[in-house]
Amino acid sequence: MPETSRRHLLLGGAAVSAGALLTACTSNEPKAQDAAPAGSAAPAADDKPGTPVTIGFAGPQADHGWLNAINDNAERRAKKYSDVTLEITEGSNDTATQIGQVQTLINKKVDVLVILPADGKALTQIGLQAMKAGIPVINLDRIFASPQAYRCWIGGDNYGMGLNAGNFIGERLKDKPNATVVELAGMDSLELTKQRTQGFDDALKNYPNIRKVARQAADFTVESGQAKMAQLLQAQPKFDALWNHDDDQGVGALRAVAQAGRKDFLMVGGAGAKSAMDAIKADSSVLKATVLYPPTMAASAIDLARALGQKKGVGGMSELEIPASITLYSAVVTKENVDEYLPTGFS
């Protein structure tokens, strides 16, 4: 997941992707398709093909539910367009390998590149190289160190995730004296984890009756979620709410909660996994909400790349060019609205 900054253009709207805007990226706007598969963006469809565009896609290694959904969204979206050819690399979390893969795409002279870098800072030079070679880059989620390394950045709002999770919990506990909360964070070595925590802490400042009493960092895996949650439960025999940064590690966290027989608090997850949405809909566990970090951004990145290749702007906006940056909104999914967001849930 990404190392993003809050300096980007905020486009408020549901995390079913920037679909309403971006599927109209070109004048040959797609017509409606069948319902999208779970974990994918609102459907793009094809009417008249435009200028053929070859898009090079360098994505991550699919070793996490969210990352797998990123790759799936990109491939599915590209297949919707008869005028798009997708040159896709084998995903890698190794920076040297990914640099080599992007270099190959540059040598093939693709029209546009979509890159979710394993490490934004480490891959900045290859982004710069592509841009200097006249190949525009859509920087997906993990941001390059220089804005000159990409034409457009699109990604999620890590600070907004924490902020919205904190506000949801705050509203649920605002009338409870001396309420306490705990946090199951992601990897503390990642900037995104710090941003999610900062957003959460800033939201809690609006609720003086609520105090955060514990925090554990996990590793975005089921196993780490279970182990770290077990430690939290043992150290904190009573608290009122839990903010968990990631739904994959949340699977393990829920296992630890069930094993401990705890039902005395509410839990808010993060990212938008289908398993989390199913649990929210069933309303049979402590999980009451999840804050989205939509992998549908990869489908929107393909829309943007197609628009760039066809020299089009974004439908619904007056400008002739696509934006320089787009930050997706971190919607809160609850029992009341889960049916709306279920189609975007990823496995």
TrEMBL record:
Q: Which SUPFAM superfamilies match?
A: Periplasmic binding protein-like I
Q: Name one GO cellular component term.
A: cell envelope
What family is this? Belongs to the bacterial solute-binding protein 2 family.
Name by which UniProt lists this protein: Putative secreted solute binding protein
Subcellular location(s) per record = Cell envelope
Q: Which PROSITE patterns match?
A: PROKAR_LIPOPROTEIN, TAT
Q: Name one GO molecular function term.
A: carbohydrate binding
The answer to whether UniProt assigns keyword Chloroplast to this entry is no
Q: Which residue range or ranges hold the Periplasmic binding protein domain?
A: 55-311
Q: Where is the composition biased (Low complexity)?
A: 33-44
Task: Give me the ranges of the annotated region Disordered.
Answer: 30-52
Keyword terms, alphabetized = Signal
Q: Which species does this protein come from?
A: Streptomyces venezuelae (strain ATCC 10712 / CBS 650.69 / DSM 40230 / JCM 4526 / NBRC 13096 / PD 04745)
The domain of life is: Bacteria
